[in-house]
Amino acid sequence: MSVFIDRGDRVLVQGITGAEGSFWTKHMIELGTRVVVGVTPGKEGQSVEGVPVYHTVRRAVADVPADAAMLFVPPRFTKDAVFEALDSGFAKIVAVADGIPLQDAIQIRKAALSCGARVVGGNTSGVISPGLAMMGMFPYWIERVYRPGRIGVMTRSGSLTNEVTAMIVRAGFGVSSLIGVGGDPVPGARFAEMLPDFQSDPGTDAVVIIGELGGSMEEEVAEAMESGAFRKPVVAFLGGRTAPAGRRMGHAGAIVSGGKGSVADKIAALEKAGAAVADRPRLVGELLQRALGAASRK
Amino acid sequence: MSVFIDRGDRVLVQGITGAEGSFWTKHMIELGTRVVVGVTPGKEGQSVEGVPVYHTVRRAVADVPADAAMLFVPPRFTKDAVFEALDSGFAKIVAVADGIPLQDAIQIRKAALSCGARVVGGNTSGVISPGLAMMGMFPYWIERVYRPGRIGVMTRSGSLTNEVTAMIVRAGFGVSSLIGVGGDPVPGARFAEMLPDFQSDPGTDAVVIIGELGGSMEEEVAEAMESGAFRKPVVAFLGGRTAPAGRRMGHAGAIVSGGKGSVADKIAALEKAGAAVADRPRLVGELLQRALGAASRK
Amino acid sequence: MKLFEYQAKDAFAERGIPVPERRLCATPEEVRAAAAAIGCPCVVKSQVLRGGRGKAGLVRLVASPEEAGAYGSELLTGGLGAAHGVRRVLVEEAVDIGRELYVSITVDPLAATALVLACAEGGVDIEELARTAPERILRERVDLDVGLLPFQARDLGYALGLGPELSGSFVTLLAGLWRVFREKDAELAEINPLFVTKARGDRPAALVAGDGKLAIDDNAAFRQGGAEPSREYFDSELAFRAAVEGIPYLQFDGDVSLMCAGAGLTTVVYDLVNYEGGSVANYLEFGGPNYKKAVRAMELCLANDPKVILIVTFGTIARADVMADGIAEAIAKLKPRCPIVACIRGTGEEKAVETLRAAGLDPLFDTEEAVRRAVSLSKAPRAEATRAETTGGRA
Amino acid sequence: MKLFEYQAKDAFAERGIPVPERRLCATPEEVRAAAAAIGCPCVVKSQVLRGGRGKAGLVRLVASPEEAGAYGSELLTGGLGAAHGVRRVLVEEAVDIGRELYVSITVDPLAATALVLACAEGGVDIEELARTAPERILRERVDLDVGLLPFQARDLGYALGLGPELSGSFVTLLAGLWRVFREKDAELAEINPLFVTKARGDRPAALVAGDGKLAIDDNAAFRQGGAEPSREYFDSELAFRAAVEGIPYLQFDGDVSLMCAGAGLTTVVYDLVNYEGGSVANYLEFGGPNYKKAVRAMELCLANDPKVILIVTFGTIARADVMADGIAEAIAKLKPRCPIVACIRGTGEEKAVETLRAAGLDPLFDTEEAVRRAVSLSKAPRAEATRAETTGGRA
User: What is the number of CB-based contacts under 8 A between chain C and chain D?
Assistant: First the structure.
């Protein structure tokens, strides 16, 4: 079992002939992902790693049915590519582009919500279920980082992901599924929206969230825990505790806070809801050991 | 029983202080309609026929709950007024304005569909259930035209409505509910969308539709009859049989035909589906007598 | 309101749609000079609102400025042009045509979206094609708020059989046509034919709008800078005068002049006149916002010198008594020499009846009866009609 | 990117939002002349991007052109201005203030809409108010595609306690602010305070934008005519140079210069340096699109004369081997005199390790270990650090 993507899902790749698209298509297939068809306007008739390429998504799915769309498309074209995938009925879409205009991101998320689809990203490495399949760009071949296991991971940060999963593995665990919701202020899918999948996934014992300054996604996780909607142990890693107020460090998420979103607020909300919060990557492993020990004693 | 409006519905009137708004509010109340609150920006604190007036719909419904919104608002402001009513959750809206911009009308209908609301109009006299209540502008006091009875009526034409209902009454029948969907090319609600209400209304024995050149609303009624979704007798009146091709007579509906919409097409479709079609107002009464005779013989 | 080709092409060009080089001309000399400037062969196109200009001889490929000037004379000062009301002529570079496509944007009333129609065969009558071979028309719905998305245009481009380069151009062109549609509040924005030029040497094939049709929504005039109606948009002087008054009017050439209220009722009266063997002189809607304009309406009717004027209304807001007052005033002012049949009902009809009787009319209450009487009067010799007039317009 | 007040007000004025009469000045003489032209009393406002200008003495109501000129000197040529990086000054007519309101448009990431915020008390710190008295902030969600509808603005206007006249003005003003938000691809468009002027004689009360804040989305620069970053938007020369390179950079004044990949990881390394008792000289993200810019990044770091450079990455697309190559090149070119701690992992890390060793470094694999080593080096006397440099940068 896995969350979002497994070996049964037929994946369409938009932007498959580009440098990133073809490189990661090769790796997705090597991991075991069922990439069945690709799209790049103007390149119909070519193939990438044996995968046939079409001009448009409609032409592609008319010949080759697919379940999930993986977008290697530049940020300025991502809105169009997401709408193209939604138009063909895709309910699982991953967009990795870093630099999607904010107002495009709003329209992407709105369209996804109104179609009942999940759009993961942008500004993400994507999603992976180690040992099974991935939609995105993960160095799954580094064993000390992507060992298969029973810990779900959700992250707003690409660069912290490897750092934290390495600590999960070092503590003796592995990863069931990892969802990179992305570092943009308006991600297509939010932590709390993915929680039901982790709750119902028998392959996941606990979830690690890698949060950040700004926004309210961590608070929404706390709400889901308090309401009882999510009942598995949660370990949260939150960086930026010492960040000076009012300075914008990296990801744009922080600016759209509306008076909320400080790391201290997030930690308070999560701890109140029963999550264990780490402020160093190494602690994530230790807190997982404690949480799962406690859970198994129940 | 009635369709759309009856004495239980609490009606909010937008544009209540205008000349038409106040005149017809008086008549709606005199017929028995439960007009509870009105809206005209800048006029909060006034009252019309004892009905309190507010600046905005939200302010009105915060004080006085209502179920249906009646819009006496100029065409250029109708889109805003409809969205304002939808925003406050109204699912029954009547907009009488004649001259709503076409692209506004598209947006009105789209919003109505996505809210699951019914917007009747524009370019209509509204809806009436003679003897009970009305939202709109009908000379209900003319007995030979608006006698209560058991015939449902739907019409695209304001001016033909009185003409045809007079013939229904002359033939010994009366009207259960009349819905003026309006003469615009993009009405908010369409004939076929109102049929389920007439089907389930125990007070309606048959439905008369007053159609027109252009568009496909009559064909949609035929489809509903053929699919079995609508099973009561239908008498259709269709004017414009001798209209010269390519000339635009009156209502704009005809231009958006896309190769369909001739009166001959409509008559063929309706007759094939089992409707009786009249090309003179007088025949409507006769065909009703025949249809209901036949129905009662079943 | 339909715009002329030259206006549509200006709107296209402003929004990046490729159109041929062109000049608008009002005199034969301008036509000659334009042909010389643009280079020959070039195309001389009458600016009229009717379709089928080619078949009517109103468009011609000319080989020289002299031929252009001569043809310009036929159109702008000669009988051919006069017969079709030609007032202006567009001189346009000749396009080296490889293929012709069709594309337009209109609305889908059922789905409540805009609708892009495209067809790999251009120059066609799209309504005819929709009837006979609907599968050859590509349809793409566009949410009015979200707007046309590039992928939609791209998919259409490939479906039209355009290659990667031209599909890219098609995306840009359709984005421009979308802006025309939205910004001009269009009911219809159409390019038919849309030319694909032949590739020549190092100049690749390209898209060019061969013709342009743009119908603007009159209801949106208030936000479109609302131009006054201009004579050139109308078939006849009377239709133009009616439009200035805001009165819906169509010119016919029969005997019964209609002065009725409401589009539906007027159309039905038109039918009934025909059913009864009569013929219509004009269609005129004297209702809605115009119900107080009886004098102007009757003036328009009388300009046709009809055998009879037939007034049928059944008004609510357009109150019967107010209309009757207007009719009485019109009779007093205009002293019509033809008989008038009046069937005026609705709000205030009791008072209306009195007014009409006072004005010498014999008001009826049944539409069909009124039509029968009008048709019968229209078939009577003028003498009888004149007699009726001497009795104060009583029919 | 935040724009200056004068730029925000220009964008407002172009879209029909009432703003005070104003002139932008770069010299004290211009300030004096502007004050004379506009009339005194008037307001002289430093154009800096920081908030709290009033408290910092960077805005002043002046009574005469002379006072304006003198204050202009303080700001444009004197110590006060220099301390805050003032380069331009806005001279603005004084508004006869009746009330102050707050209004802004930003986004609601959860609902995926735009969000209008309004408050009957202007001049406030809205983030502070959101925390302490959220019920005093009015919120109106706006669908980005549908746009702001007049009824939404009208309802806000009445809720702010504006009467019929001013509510009408508010509808127009907010429509203008909506256009600013959409057309400028804004992250935030804010008017704070929004003045309601006092009614005076026959001049009724009116709305005027007292201040303007406009933050533009850098990601949308490609469709915004994409201006190059300009020095005036940045606190420091280094921050400006980093922005020109597209490298995220923040200036601090500690000892450890961060040269890390990814916002999340860099922030955590910042935390860890603080947890371990060290201090940060600068925050620099050398990853994503910049992972091949090691030389430029290290140049920026060295400009701070740090005690140590700490490089931490865990890259996938930003390949470890490519980054290592860049670092080796940078060391060879720039010959850093301070020690370098490198912890470079991810795609191609085996090759990266070889490269770093060849460059004289001692690569680590654990972030916390790397931070501890860097902090410890940062506390060592310079002498030791210099020794490290003589061994080829080995830490």
Answer: 7
Count of domains forming chain D: 3
Say whether both C239 and C185 belong to one domain. no
Backbone angles phi, psi at C292, to 5 degrees: -100, 5
Task: Name the superfamily (CATH) of residues B1-123.
Answer: NAD(P)-binding Rossmann-like Domain (3.40.50.720)
Nearest-Cα distance to chain B for C185, in Å, is 7
Domain limit, last residue, from D224, D256, D279:
D224
Task: Assess whether D286 and D141 both reside in one domain.
Answer: no
Asked if the domains at B1-123 and B145-298 fall in one CATH topology, the answer is: yes
Contact B242 C131 (CB under 8 A): no
Assess whether D295 and D378 both reside in one domain: yes
Please give the ipTM for the structure prediction: 0.93
User: Which among C292, C329, C300, C309 is positioned nearest to C254, based on CA atoms?
Assistant: C309
Tell me the three-class secondary structure of C162-222, residue by residue. Answer: CCHHHHHHHHHHHHHHHHHHHHCCEEEEEEEEEEEECCECCECCCEEECCCEEEECHHHHH
Q: What is the mean pLDDT of chain A?
A: 92
Per-residue model confidence (pLDDT) at position D109: 94
Cα–Cα dist C208/C191, whole Å: 9
Domain boundaries, chain B: 1-123, 145-298
pLDDT higher at D222 or B88? B88
**What one-character-per-residue DSSP string does D15-47 give?**
TT-----EEEESSHHHHHHHHHHH-SSEEEEE-
Which among B128, B184, B125 is positioned nearest to B153, based on CA atoms? B128
Domain that holds residue D83: 21-93
C177 found inside a domain = yes
Task: Report if residue C78 sits inside a domain.
Answer: yes
* C19, pLDDT greater than 90: yes
Give the strand order in the sheet containing B206-211: B133-136, B126-129, B175-180, B148-155, B206-211, B234-238, B276-278
> How, if at all, do strands B234-238 and B276-278 pair?
parallel
pLDDT, tens digit, for every residue of C51-78?
Answer: 789 889 999 999 999 999 999 999 999 9
**How many CB atoms are closer than 10 A to CB B209?**
28
D113 and D154 inside one domain: yes
| Residue A47 and residue A53 in contact, taking contact as beta carbons nearer than 8 Å | yes
Contact residues, A window 27-66, toward C, CB-based 8 Å cutoff: 41-42, 44, 55-59
Chain D hits for B59, CB-CB cut-off 8 Å, are 155, 158
| Chain B contact set for D164 (CB, 8 A) | 41-42, 55
Q: C interface mutation test: which of D143, D144, D145 has the most C CBs within 10 A? A: D145
Are D163 and D300 in the same domain? no
Residue B176 — φ and ψ, nearest 5°?
Answer: -80, -65
Of A52, A86, A54, nearest to A69 by C-alpha is A86
CA distances from B136 to A148, A173, B139, C262 (A): 67, 70, 10, 17
C252 located within any domain: yes
Q: What are phi and psi of C222, to 5 degrees?
A: -60, -25
The CATH number of residue D178's host domain is 3.30.470.20
At the topology level, CATH places domain B145-298 in: Rossmann fold (3.40.50)
| CA–CA separation, B75 and A265 (whole Å) | 50
In this predicted structure, the answer to whether residue C36 has a pLDDT above a threshold of 70 is yes
User: What's the confidence (pLDDT) of residue C52?
Assistant: 83
Tokens 């002139």 map to which residue? D23
Alpha-helical segments (H) within chain B: 19-31, 57-63, 75-87, 102-115, 158-170, 191-200, 217-226, 263-272, 281-297
Residues C245 and C389 in one domain: yes
Tokens 């709107």 sit on residue:
C11
Angle between helices C150-159 and C164-183 (to 10 degrees): 130
Domain boundary residue, one of D63, D93, D123? D93
Q: Are D104 and D116 in contact (CB under 8 A)?
A: yes
Taking residues C226-254, what's their average pLDDT? 85
